[in-house]
Backbone:
């Protein structure tokens, strides 16, 4: 039961253009959505997150959009740079009771982004 | 300012042997998580621990796998009687006690190969 899906295994973009990575989810109980970037032989690195009560969050070149009615989120990278080439994972966090710090995340399969110079 | 430290980075075991993977969280972090990534898949949650307590082990296989986070020392993920299907990258992550957004800091992973 894949609750978080990234349907595009790979994406190729020219340097300077926009990269759009997509993610769909099925569980309405997720309260935070996150994007992680991963280089080969390294651990994932946190990029940006969005609360389920927001529809947009921006941090420099990275913007995440959340469409709750469609259960869809996307990560926009503008402008794309060759150093952005990596695997991007979408992840969703189960809502936790009592405000406790809780990092049980459900990850998508990842999208390999290649940015060509 | 060390990040999450995992060792060993690579581990080779024969079927039936035991594997022990260690994780030291970032300084000031008291929450530790273990995730597993099988080839061509995303990361899958295994277990969430705080010092001396297992908070959520819903992702752990019922047999052969165990985890601990003692009062002193690193967290340890232990796999007994390994099988070929245990071959994967095992990632440890940590978070500070007052961060409630799901943001985790991951180590570089331990890659287990079972022959």
Residues:
């Amino acid at each position: 039961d894949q609750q978080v899906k990234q349907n595009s295994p790979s994406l190729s973009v020219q340097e300077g253009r926009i990269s759009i990575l997509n993610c769909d989810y099925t569980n309405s109980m997720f309260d935070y959505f996150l994007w992680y970037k991963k280089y080969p032989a390294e651990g994932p690195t946190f990029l940006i997150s969005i609360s389920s009560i927001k529809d947009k969050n921006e941090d420099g070149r990275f913007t995440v959009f959340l469409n709750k009615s469609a259960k869809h989120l996307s990560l926009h990278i503008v402008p794309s740079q060759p150093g952005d080439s990596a695997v991007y994972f979408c992840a969703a966090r189960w809502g936790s009771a009592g405000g406790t710090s809780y990092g049980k995340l459900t990850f998508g399969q990842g999208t390999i982004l290649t940015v060509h110079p | 300012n060390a990040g999450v430290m995992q060792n060993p980075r690579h581990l080779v075991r024969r079927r039936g042997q035991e594997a022990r993977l260690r994780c030291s969280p970032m300084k000031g972090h008291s929450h530790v998580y273990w995730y597993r990534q099988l080839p061509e898949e995303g990361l899958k949650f295994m277990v969430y621990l705080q010092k001396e307590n297992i908070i959520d082990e819903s992702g752990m296989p019922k047999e052969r796998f165990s985890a601990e986070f003692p009062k002193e020392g690193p967290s340890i993920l232990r796999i007994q009687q390994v099988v070929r299907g245990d071959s994967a990258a095992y990632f440890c992550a940590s978070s500070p006690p007052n961060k409630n957004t799901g943001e985790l800091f991951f180590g570089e992973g331990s890659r287990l190969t079972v022959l």
